[in-house]
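Why does residue order matter? Because the sequence determines the fold. Keep that principle in mind as you read this record.
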Amino acid sequence: MFTLCFAFAIASVSFGQLHFGAGVSLLDFDAFGVQGKVMMDLEEQTGQPLDGAATFTYFFQENVTSWAIDLDAHYRLLTIGEDIDFAPIAGLQIARASVNIGTASVGNTDIGINLGGHFNIPISGFNVYAQPKITLGGFDAFTLAAGIMF
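Structure:
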């Protein structure tokens, strides 16, 4: 994750605005997680209203260690009302889950495809986000995330 954040930071010198954030996530309304998020505005480079996002989420479950890295593209499509921006998202997920049985651990890593939406709401100089999405493969689940971007 450090390498990915470093790459985004270096790219930000010549590739536009970089935003950092943190949030919480629910995986199938069953597992609770915390996440760190990095978003970069790619409109200057692509000529399209596009953002790139990298998210690391760690989920808390009894006897299970699980995490996901999501690499998504956000296409800023429309503004709802006066302030709420909506962007459909698509991307990839690298997910890892391992079950702890006594002193042993059995796990699996999988890759999935993310499809969903990203809502951005500016409040008092911050950007609050909500992001429902489904993943086909990876955790193969519905995820609802929310947080704040700086």
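The first strand starts at residue 18 and ends at 27.
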